Structure formats: C-alpha cells, structure tokens
Amino acid sequence: MGITIVKAEAEKILQAAHDIASSDVADPLEDWTLLATSLREADAPRTYTAALVTALLARSCDARVDPLSIKEKYDERAFSLRNLCHSVVVPISIKLGFDLGATGREPINNQPFFRYDHYSEIVRVRAKARPYLDRLSNALTKVDEENFSTEDAFRALAAVLTVCIAVAKKKRIVPVGSAIVEASLIAETQNFVTTGYDIPRKLQACVAAGLDMAYEEVISRRINDPSRDLPGDVQVILDGEPLLTVEVRGKSVTGEGLEQFVRSAADAGFRRVALMVDAASHVSLMSANEATVELEREYGCIIKVNESTSSFLRDVFVWSPRDTHSILSTFPEAMYRRMTEIEVRESEIERWIKLFPDT
Fold this sequence. Notes:
It is a single chain. This protein is α/β, with parallel strands linked by helices. It has helices at about 5-20, 30-40, 50-60, 80-95, 130-145, 150-170, 180-195, 200-210, 255-265, 290-300, 310-320, 325-340, 345-355; strands spanning about 220, 235-240, 240-250, 270-275, 300-305. The mean pLDDT is about 90.
C-alpha cells in the first residue's frame, strides 16, 4: 500500500537540512543547485520546486521511497507527495522563511500532480512546462537509479534549500518610494501593470495594494483559486462583515458582464461594488451612467467603475486617511507584497523594485 512518512521525523530532517543550507558549512552540490535555479525561470511551473523539495525529503526519511511516486497507492515504495508537502514542507517553509515558489497551502493539488499516481504516468502537460518536468523527473530518476541513501538525499535537499533561502532573501528587499511624488507613482504604476508579463496578476495586486492604503482588512484571492467563495477578486471586510468587492479585469467588460457581477455581489451581501478594468479593447461604460443607476436601484448597492489603473489609484489616494508621505513610502512595499502573494513572476517583481531609488 506504500510508505507512510512520519510527520515528526520529516519535520526534524527538513529543519536540519535548512540549518545546514543556512550555515557556512553548506555543500551546494552544483547539479542540484542548477536544477533548483532552473525551476525558478519565468516559464517554470511554480509548483515544481515544492515537488522537488518534498521528494528529496521523503527519500531523506526512508531510503526505500520511490522519489517519482505521487500517490501512496501506486505501489509498496510509493508515498503521498501531496500529504507530505501540505503537512510538513509548506508549514516549515513558512516557519523558517524559505521560498517554495508557490504560495498556496497545497502546491501539489495542481496540474500535473493531482491527476496521476506516478511521474511515469504523466502525459498531459503544457508545452512550456515540459522541459522543466523532464528536468525534475530526470533528477528524481537519478536518485532512484543511483540508489541514493538517506544521507545522499539529505545532501541534495540541503543544496536545493540554499536556492530557496537565497530567493527568499532577495524577495525581502523592500522598495521605498518616498523620493517621488504621488502623481509620478500613479503614472509609473499604470505603465508597470499594463506592460510586460502577468498583467492580470499585477492588476489584481495593484487593486489590493491600493485598498491597503484605505482599509485594514483586504483580501486578495489567488487567480483560479478553487476555494474562492466570494464574488470578485479583491474584497474589503469591516468588523467581520463584507463591505466592498472589486472585480479586476484586464480585458473588455460589457454592460451585461457588469450586471452579472453586481447581481452576484449583492446576493453575497456586498452593498459596495466596484469594477476596475484596464484594457485597450474596453468600450467605456461611463456613457451608460443611467444604466448603472438602474442597477443600483435594482440591486440595492452603490456601484463604482474605474476604467484605468491610474483612475482607480487617484480615487484611493484622494480618499485614503494616510498622508502623502505614508502613501509614497508604503504603497510600493504593499504592491511588492501583493505581487508576491499572487505569484507574479520574479522578473516582474524585480522590475517593480528597480522603479524606485534607494532612500
């Protein structure tokens, strides 16, 4: 039926590997650090680092483990990749502060892992992801074919963690924008979120960061999050009750699309509903102001439509209780944090950091 990894033992081993990876005596094995670094490239699926760490941890716990297994039921050498990742690897990564690439609680509950029992069964994978899956599966095949002992696997795990630790340290660089005025900050942000990669993610991060300037409890949902249970992409909660929900779109929205969102938001108890759309193809809804008023009457809520990032940020900054200096110094950091949270690729986060001078 497979091998059950003892949680307490796995936690101790992962902690020990992290301690070594963080120390001056770390042995960064070149082949493993190169693999771990390659899994951070822009096109690499974010879940692969977590899968690599988990497989090496399992082999570090028990030399019988088949590192290519995904589900415990596969055969007598298999272990549950998802369970070990969810119960040990993710919590320890949060506790110790090393970066797994994916920020969700269950990275393995995604393609291609949840569908298959073993790497050898994986046939459906995106074209861009295929080279990275091949690198990952080839490395784990090497672990098995070369009969890695628990000590061998532990050394490989520590080497991979040196990369995870380095990435985490790099992400802790906090950008500061106090050297520029608000108008420049808005213009720079408008250009940044609408160019480059991950535009939908950056738009959502921008809305969340903007609302952080005005509210204490702002929830930003991960894109395509299967646990999403509220309408909209970003919500504001006040005293435990829903206050405002914002739909963020990087493509054209019709009047019918707006009404569908308003209806679902009103049904969920929101009485303040906003749409932030930023797309060259979008046909303005502002000329249909009477239709918006009719929606407000029908659904009993206030509706606000912003049709550019700059328009949204101007509204937020004007009504924020923060002073100008506070916004200039905290919005860039909030944007950085929200982009990290929603898993914007590292090259875009670095581009954001470079927009701001050191102060």
